[in-house]
Structures are given as structure tokens and as C-alpha cells.
Write a structure and sequence with these properties.
Strand content: 25-35%
Strand order of the largest sheet: 1-4
Structural class: alpha+beta
Distance between the termini: 17 Å
Order of helices and strands: EEEEEEH
Number of helices: 1
Number of strands: 6
Largest sheet: 2 strands, antiparallel
Length: about 55
Amino acid sequence: MINMGTKYTSTDSDGWTVRTGDGKPSAHFEYAVAAREGKPDLLSTFEYIEEVLTKR
């Protein structure tokens, strides 16, 4: 999770829902990876998120 506030989170009793500790907005991010010729090929990028975080 990428949180606008604290890094702390809690998980609801359903075992699936995750909430930020301070209730601020957050987003989930995953990399998409393909295996080609026995090697990983990264299909997604974290570049846009890093760009925003470095402006803080």
C-alpha cells in the first residue's frame, strides 16, 4: 500500500480489507511480471509513484 499519511495499517476481521492507521487515502500497487526465456520481464513501472514521492 502507498499511504498519504502513516505507514501503519490494520486488517479487518474478514482477513482481506486493509485500512490505513490514520484513515488517510491509500492505493495498492503491484508489479506485473512475465517470464520470458527463463528470465523475468517487468511489465509495469513504479516510476510515476516515485516521481510524486520525490516531490514531497
